[in-house]
Design brief:
Order of helices and strands: HHHH
Shape: elongated
Number of helices: 4
Strand content: under 5%
Largest sheet: none
Helix content: over 70%
Length: about 160
Amino acid sequence: MKEESIETVLNEVCEEVRSLKQLCEAQNTQLEKFGNQVNVFDEKLSEMKAIPLSTDLSSVEEKINTGIKRLQIVLENYPKKINREFHLHLFPKMNIMDYYKTYSKLILYLTLLAIIAGLFGIGTKWIEGYNERQQLIQIHSFESNSNPVQPIEKTKKRINK
């Protein structure tokens, strides 16, 4: 039994060695293909030559200089008109409408505040006058109780004072 088991084990090991050998051969052929491709690439790379571009910019400079000369001629011949304008601005020129809107609202609120303050003053004067008239009426009613007959003219004079 030992011989049979040794034979089967040896056969299996031999089969594995054969399969590994075939795998190594396949990898070697692939490596040769890749090596050939690298060699072809190196040959193409060595065949390529870098062509330097010319650094002569004299034609470009010449065109720029002619353009500048043309501009100078045009500017010298162009009549220059000077307009002096004087403006009075309450606000900066940028976003001037926003400033006018804001300050017009402020002016509106201030006028409303002034009107309300004036009405308040008028109201307090009216209340004081009303209180004085009520006191005169009370005084008149007290005097009329003591003197039953009093002319209307005297009461009007007291009220107007």
